[in-house]
DNA sequence: CCAGACTTCTGGTCTATACCAGATCAGCAG
DNA sequence: CTGCTGATCTGGTATAGACCAGAAGTCTGG
C-alpha cells in the first residue's frame, strides 16, 4: 500500500514481541528506549504501537507501559455457561468483582424488555478479570417478579443464569442480542483501567422466558482485544 | 479522568458534526482549517479526529478528507436474508461487486468445514456497498457437491442462500460463527479503500445442512463503524 | 519494621515545522 | 469535445523538543 516508515516499524516491533530478551514477562521496553533503538521519535513510534494495539497484539496500562496481549477468550453470548466456567475451560483464571447492587428503574433496560420505564429492576454491576486483567465491565438488570429475593442470595459466586433456572425455574428461551464495536465510555474505561475512548466491544442482551415474559437485560463492555465471539446454532430452517 | 485538551477538542468537534454550515454534505473542513479554527496543531487535532473515528462518528477517505459516518447497518449473520434485502429494508441503497470467482482448494475453509485441505471449493470474492460506501469485503467457499453448477448461474443478483435452498434444496441447519474486532488486513483494506490496519470486524461462518454435511464457509471483513450485529434466538433450553 | 515523603521512571499531551503522495480539478493542446 | 498535464488541494508521515501526571520504587524518620 504505502512504504510508510511506521508500518515497517510496526513489523519490526512485531518481531520483538516474541523475543523474551526484549519483552521481559510480556512487558515492552519503554517508549523512549524503543524510539532510540529504532532511531526514530516517540511520535512515530507511538503510531506503530497504536497499530499493534489495534491488531490486538499489545495493550497499554495507564502510565505503566505496553504489554503483550494474551490470546483472546472464546465467548458464546448465546450460551448459559457462566463466565467462571468458560474462562477456566480455556485454562485461564477468572475473577469477578461486584461493584454495586441496587433496585431502581432503568429506562433503557425497561425499554429493551418492553416494560414501563419506571419499573424498578434488580441491578448488579460487576467487573470481570481474566488472569488478573480486567476485560469486562457489565451491568445487568433482572425483573424482580421473575426472581424475588435475588439480591439477598449468593449471586456473586455462582452462575446467575444457572440460579435463575434452578431457583426460579426460568427457561431463558428467547434472547435478543446486539453487538458492535465502540469507544469505551468514560465510566467503563475507568473501571477497566484504560484510557477513555479505548477500543471496545459492546454486547447487549435482552432475555425472555418461554412465555415471552421479560427476565433480564444486560450490557457488557469488553476490551476489544480480549475476546472472540463464537456462536453455535442448531436446527431452524 | 484527565483534562487532556484533545478530549475537549473532541467534544467541540462532536458539536460541529451536526452543523450543516461546517460540514457540507457530511464532509468536514480540512485538517489545517480545523487546526487553525481551534487554535491548535494538526497533530493534536488528528488525535481528536482519531478519537471520533474510534467512536464511529466519522471516517476518512484516503487523502480526500474526513466525513460524517452514517448510521450503522443492522445485520443478523444468523439469518438468511440477503444483503440486498436487509440493506433496502433499512432504507439504504445496496450494491455488490463480484471481484473474482474460481474453483480451488482453500485449506482454512476446508478445515472449518471438516474437509480435506486439498478439496476444491467454489470460491466467490465480492465487495459490498451501502449508499456507495464500500463497507464489506468477503470471500465465500461452497462445497461443489452441494451446489453443482453454482458458478454458472446468476449468483450475483440473487441471495446466494436463497438459491442454495431453492435450487439445491439445502437446509443450512447448522451454523458456526466466530467474530472479533481486528485491524483490516492489507488486501481487504485496499478493496475497501481505507488504510491498512484500520479498525474492522471479522465474521467467519461455517454452515452445514440438516444431515451435518458441510455446505459453505465464508469470511467477512467489515468496516468497524458500519454495522451493528443483531441476533434473535428462539427456543432452546 | 513500617508508614509516609520523595525521586525517578513511565506514558500522556502538546507545540512547531517540514516534506511526501495521492486525489482532484482547471486549463490547455489536440 | 476529449484527453492529458500540471498546479493545488488534501491527508500521511516524520523530526525535535517540551512539560505534565500517574505509577512505582526508594529512602528516611519514627
Automatic annotation (TrEMBL), chains A, B:
Domain HTH gntR-type, residue spans: 3-71
The UniProt record lists the keyword Transmembrane: no
The keyword rRNA processing appears for this protein: no
Cited Gene3D superfamilies: Chorismate lyase-like (3.40.1410.10), Winged helix-like DNA-binding domain superfamily/Winged helix DNA-binding domain (1.10.10.10)
UniProt keyword list: DNA-binding, Transcription, Transcription regulation
Domain of life: Bacteria
Pfam family, one: UTRA
InterPro entries in alphabetical order: Bact_HTH_transcr_reg, Chorismate_lyase_/UTRA_dom_sf, Tscrpt_reg_HTH_GntR, UTRA, WH-like_DNA-bd_sf, WH_DNA-bd_sf
Alphabetical list of PROSITE patterns matching this protein: HTH_GNTR
PANTHER family (alphabetical): MANNOSYL-D-GLYCERATE TRANSPORT/METABOLISM SYSTEM REPRESSOR MNGR-RELATED, MANNOSYL-D-GLYCERATE TRANSPORT_METABOLISM SYSTEM REPRESSOR MNGR-RELATED
This protein's name: UTRA domain-containing protein
Amino acid at each position: 500500500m504505502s512504504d510508510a516508515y511506521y508500518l515497517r516499524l510496526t513489523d519490526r516491533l512485531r518481531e520483538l514481541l516474541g523475543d523474551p530478551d526484549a519483552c521481559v514477562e510480556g512487558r515492552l521496553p519503554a517508549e523512549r528506549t524503543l524510539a532510540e533503538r529504532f532511531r526514530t521519535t516517540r511520535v512515530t513510534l507511538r503510531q506503530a504501537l497504536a497499530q499493534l494495539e489495534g491488531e490486538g497484539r499489545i495493550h497499554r496500562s495507564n502510565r505503566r507501559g505496553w504489554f503483550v496481549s494474551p490470546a483472546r477468550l472464546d465467548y458464546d453470548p448465546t450460551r448459559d455457561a457462566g463466565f467462571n466456567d468458560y474462562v477456566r475451560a480455556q485454562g485461564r483464571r477468572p475473577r469477578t468483582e461486584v461493584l454495586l447492587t441496587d433496585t431502581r428503574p432503568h429506562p433503557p433496560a425497561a425499554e429493551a424488555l418492553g416494560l414501563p420505564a419506571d419499573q424498578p429492576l434488580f441491578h448488579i454491576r460487576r467487573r470481570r478479570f481474566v488472569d488478573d486483567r480486567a476485560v469486562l465491565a457489565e451491568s445487568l438488570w433482572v425483573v424482580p417478579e421473575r426472581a424475588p429475593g435475588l439480591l439477598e442470595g449468593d449471586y456473586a459466586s455462582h452462575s446467575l443464569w444457572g440460579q435463575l433456572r434452578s431457583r426460579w425455574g426460568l427457561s431463558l428461551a428467547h434472547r435478543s442480542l446486539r453487538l458492535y464495536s465502540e469507544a469505551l465510555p468514560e465510566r467503563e474505561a475507568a473501571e477497566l483501567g484504560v484510557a477513555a475512548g479505548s477500543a471496545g466491544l459492546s454486547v447487549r442482551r435482552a432475555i425472555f422466558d418461554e412465555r415471552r415474559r421479560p427476565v433480564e437485560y444486560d450490557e457488557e463492555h469488553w476490551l476489544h482485544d480480549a475476546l472472540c465471539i463464537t456462536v453455535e446454532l442448531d436446527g431452524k430452517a
